[in-house]
Amino acid sequence: MALLFRLLPLIIGMISAGCFAMQAQYANWYPWILVPAFIVFIGGIATMFRQRHWGWEDVRLAVPALMAFAAAGFGMLLVEGWLRYWGIPLFVGLVSYLLVELLFLSTFYASKYPVNGMTHMNLALVPVIFWLLAYTSSGLLVFMNTQRFSPMILFAVVGGVLWYVTAHPEATPESRLRWTLIGAWISTQIGMIIAIVPLRMEVHAMIASICGAAALRVRRYGIAPPIPRNMILLEVIGMILFLAAVAFTAAWR
User: Fold this and answer.
1) How far apart are CA 99 and CA 122, in angstroms?
2) CB-based contact 122:165 (threshold 8 Å)
3) Which tens digit of pLDDT belongs to each residue from 125-173?
C-alpha cells in the first residue's frame, strides 16, 4: 500500500496526460475521453485527503489545480497544433502530478514538503488558466457566435474564485473579501476586452494572461516583506509598455 501511495502521483499524471493526448487525436469524441482523467484526478486528491485530517484549507489549495484541469479541457475545443497535441497534455500531466505529489509529501513526509509549495504552484497557474479561457472564449465568439456577455460572466466567476482561493493564508476575512471583489472586477474587464475588441485569439489570450499575472503581483505589493519602490515602478512601466505594444502592433480581425 505504501508503494501505491508513492507511485500514485506519477500514475495520475500519466493517465491525465494520456487522456488529453488521446482526445487530441479523436476530436469527435470530445469531451468523453477527458472524463476518465477528471475522475482519476479527483479520486487521487480524495485518496490523499483520506490519509489526513483535511479541512477547508486543503480544499482551497486544490481548487486552482482543478480549475486549471477544467480550463485545459475547455481549451481542447479550439487549441490547435503543438499546443493541442503536446502542450496541453504535458501541462495537465504536470499539474496533476505536482498537486498529488505535494499532497503526498505534506501528508507522509512533512519535512520534505517545500514551504508554501501548493500556494506558489497555484499562483503560477492563474495566468495559464486565463490564457486558456481567453483563447477559447474568443474563438467561440468568432466561430460559434456565442453571446457577447459570456466571456465577462465566465471571467468574473473564475477570477473571483481564483483570487479568493489564492489569498495569503494569513489574510483577514475583510482583506480576502476585498481582493475577491477586486479580482472579479478586473477579470470582468478582461472578459469585456475579449467581447468587444476584435483581436486575434492568441492576442486576447496573451492580454488576459498578462493582466491576470499583473493583478496578482499588485496584490503582492501589500504583503510583507515589502518590495522596493524602484522594482514596483519598473514592473508597472514594463506592463504598460507591453500592453501598448500589443495594442499597436497586433493584427485586428
Assistant:
1) 9
2) yes
3) 999 999 999 999 999 998 888 888 999 999 999 999 999 999 877 778 8
Cis omega (within 30 of 0) for bond into 36: no
**Residue 188, C-beta contacts closer than 8 angstroms, at least 6 positions apart:** 152, 155, 156, 159
Q: Which amino acid belongs to residue 188? A: T
Q: How far is CA 148 from the centre of its chain?
A: 23
Q: Which residues contact 83 (CB under 8 A, 6 or more apart)?
A: none
Q: What is the pLDDT of residues 25-54, one digit of tens each?
A: 999 999 999 999 999 999 999 998 888 777
Q: Report the predicted TM-score, pTM, of the whole model to 2 decimal places.
A: 0.92
- Say whether the peptide bond before residue 225 is cis (omega within 30 degrees of 0): yes
For cell 475579449, what's the residue? 194
Domain segments of the chain as ranges? 1-113, 118-253
Q: Any idea which residue has 497557474 for its cell?
A: 125
| Alpha-carbon dihedral angle through residues 201, 215, 125, 27, given to the nearest 10 degrees | -20
* Share of the chain residues as helix, strand and coil, in percent rounded to the nearest 5: 80, 0, 20
